[in-house]
Amino acid sequence: MKKKSKKKSKKKKFIIIAIILVVTIIIQTLPVLFPKPLGSESIVDENVILYYQKGDEKGANEVFDLLKEESDSILSKMKFENNEVTEVYLYKTQWQLAIREAGFVTLIIAPPWHIGDSHNGNVMMVSPYAPVEVHTHDSILTATLHEFVHSINFQINPELSYFWDNGIATYLSDQEPEDDDLYSRDVPTLDEMHTDNGLEFAEMGGYAFSYNYIEYLDDTYGWDSILEYVSGNGSYEEIFNKSEEEIYNDWCDNLEESSSME
Prior knowledge:
Layout: H1 2-29, E1 41-44, E2 48-52, H2 57-77, E3 86-91, H3 94-102, H4 106-109, E4 116-117, E5 123-126, H5 137-156, H6 162-172, H7 179-183, H8 198-203, H9 206-221, H10 223-230, H11 236-240, H12 244-260
Parallel strand pairs: 2-3, 3-5
Antiparallel strand pairs: 1-2, 4-5
Helix pairs in contact: 2-5, 5-6, 6-9, 9-10
């Protein structure tokens, strides 16, 4: 009888622990399922629907006006017909953005400079009036264009690499790096360029280097070749007539030459 009682007790504890874990996971991930800010209002045009929180009308209108002004140009540059409006979610604070990206655990791991993201073709951003380390009102607005480009890249080719995706986004949103961002650190290796970890990418200067990489390809091979690769219409050899490693070595030589001219 005692053995049966112990077994029942262990089983009961296991069930309780399992229930607690399931409830914790549900609570942790619940915000991800509801990206709209609480009590949100919306502004709409043919390319964008922007959801924002009451009290942030000024920031929302600035973001919306910028996207309205620049979205046609970006879509034209990408040669992409936007058949569906891009959903943009604007939050008053970083913590509201963070929990809707990956749940409450993101509050622990999100870097202090993080201001936006794009998931499955949407755009998630903090308001340009949110207090953020490193960033300014204007840099947050520019980053909104960056995330909009990410949303278009996803619709064109969801398999595009992290480095290429960010290179196109920084290039088309005119986030040109400072010389120190390029020439004061080591060029990432080809293996490092294949990372899909956002923190690793940022730490290696990925935003600056990916911009420069796309700029180099544009100057050397032309924008149409870049679009062919972005669209997944061929390999490096098929589009650029060189292997990825050969392109990488040529780019490194170009960086070294540019650095010596500074």
